[in-house]
Specification:
The chain starts with a helix and ends with a strand. The protein is rod-shaped, with a radius of gyration of 47 Å. The longest helix has 47 residues, at 205-251. Helix 2 runs antiparallel to helix 4 (137-173), helix 6 (205-251) runs antiparallel to helix 7 (257-286) and helix 9 runs antiparallel to helix 10 (407-417). The protein is 53% helix and 17% strand. A five-stranded antiparallel β-sheet has the order 1-4-7-6-5. It contains ten helices and 14 strands. It has 443 residues and is an alpha+beta fold. The chain has three domains: 15-161, no CATH class; 205-283, Signal transduction histidine kinase, dimerisation/phosphotransfer (DHp) domain (Helix Hairpins), CATH 1.10.287.130; 291-441, Histidine kinase-like ATPase, C-terminal domain (Heat Shock Protein 90).
């Protein structure tokens, strides 16, 4: 019940449908009551006209009562409620009720006769005397009610149909808004191009215009931020390169073992900073606007290029890094982006997998999808951490390997830029470890 109340409170479509239904229902009820009253009155007037016509057509009759309809009349009136009875005045058998009627002028009256209510039409005859044409009011009311209900019945049957049509029209009116919401929901985090404004209601158009202006400002802000990161990284690379060269020259000089040990620590720090700057440049590059798909790239060639770069580090740790399977899979994508994506994945796997470990690279096709997998037998990533490790600069606690926490963030950004989907899972090839899967669509 709380959910329904919340939807009614915040859903404009439901509120509009509800109020339209209530308005249509209220108007239909009011119209039905007015129609019922009008039909009731009209049927009674028609029955009065029948009594007048009968009185006009009848001429002077013998003293006995004349009954129109089935069944005879008794001394006190009509045996059947739906019959019309003609009585001459005065009438001896009905003096109890008709005596007072006989004193009335010609016309229509509702009078009690024998404990029952009758509608009576009085008329004087040309040859003298008078007649009373009578009909029980109960029968008249039943006939009027039946006629009125037949008048209102079509409206009552059409009311649910009208409400359903109004609800359907409201849903159709809000369909462009729902389509716009679905399009926004399907966008990536960095897809900031303006929302389409075609086929939108005039009342929604200013809101979409304001959103598009906001998206433009956010996009400009992100571009400024990315430019700052790239410029800062470039500016810092020059002094770091100079420091690295100075460290190499100092290393060639004579020095004590303690000084050489400190020099080695300094060189490792410079290397970490250089790697951080490279990854910052890679992240800024990955976050740029999406380019075209490019020509078809052979993933095996991408793997070979990456392995050439990481092979020295893998050999230093005694690791087995290679390509699993023989499939030569092709994908229409930017080769530079693919190389950067695979390099970051393999570099992470090699760095965090212990010495003597194994890293397998593989690619396969499944229908209209290309599946790229990097699998290792390292420590893996806990399930509760797998979403957070994709954020920039986040690193799993307890990791002894140096790093900036940008590798998987770059991978996710590149995967989204290439239209792929990144997934982290436990290794299925080894007893423990991590399996990284990136799924691309060929279309």
């Amino acid at each position: 019940m709380d959910g329904v109340k919340k939807r009614l409170r915040y859903s404009l479509r439901l509120r509009l449908s509800l109020w339209l239904s209530l308005a249509i229902g209220g108007l239909a009820i009011a119209g039905g009551l007015l129609s019922l009253r009008a039909a009731w009155k009209e049927v009674h007037e028609l029955q009065d006209d029948v009594l007048r016509q009968v009185a006009i057509l009848v001429r002077y009759q013998p003293a006995s009562a004349i009954s129109l309809g089935e069944g005879p009349t008794g001394a006190k009136g009509v045996d059947r409620d739906d019959s019309i009875t003609i009585l001459p005045l005065p009438h001896r058998g009905a003096q109890e009720g008709l005596a007072s009627v006989a004193r009335l002028r010609d016309g229509l009256y509702t009078v009690p006769i024998g404990g029952r209510s009758f509608r009576v039409a009085l008329r004087s005859l040309p040859g003298g005397g008078r007649i009373a044409v009578t009909q029980a009011t109960k029968a008249r009311d039943q006939i009027a009610l039946s006629g009125a209900l037949h008048t209102v019945l079509p409206m009552a049957l059409l009311l649910p149909v009208i409400i359903l049509m109004a609800t359907h029209v409201v849903r159709r009116m809000f369909k462009p808004v729902a389509s716009l919401a679905a399009e926004v929901e399907a966008r990536g985090d960095r897809d900031l191009h303006p929302l389409p404004q075609r086929n939108l209601p005039l009342e929604v158009d200013p809101f979409v215009t304001a959103i598009n202006r906001l998206l433009t400002r956010v996009s400009q802000s992100m571009e400024t931020q990315q430019r700052f990161i790239a410029d800062a990284a470039h500016e810092l690379r020059t002094p770091l390169t100079a420091l690295s060269l100075q460290a190499q020259r100092v290393e060639a000089a004579e020095m004590s073992p303690e000084a050489r040990e400190r020099l080695e620590v300094m060189r490792e720090g410079l290397e970490r900073n250089r790697r951080l700057l490279d990854q910052l440049l890679g992240l800024a590059s990955a976050q740029r606007s999406t380019t075209g798909a490019g020509a078809e790239v052979t993933l095996r060639e991408v793997f070979h290029r990456v392995l050439e770069d990481v092979l020295p580090l893998a050999e230093a740790k005694g690791m087995d890094v290679g390509i699993a399977g023989e499939a030569d899979v092709r994908l229409a994508a930017s080769e530079a982006d693919l190389v950067s994506l695979v390099r970051n994945l393999v570099d992470n796997a090699v760095r965090y997998t212990p010495e003597g470990g194994r890293v397998d690279l593989g690619a396969s096709e499944s229908g209209d999808q290309v599946i790229l997998q990097i699998e290792d037998n390292g420590p893996g990533i806990p399930v509760e951490e797998r979403e957070r490790v994709l954020d920039p600069f986040y690193r799993v606690l307890g990791s002894e390997q140096p790093g900036s926490g940008l590798g998987l963030s770059i991978v996710r950004t590149l995967a989204e830029r290439l239209g792929g989907r990144l997934e982290l899972a436990d290794s299925t090839r080894f007893d423990h470890g991590l399996k990284v899967t990136v799924t691309f669509s060929k279309v």
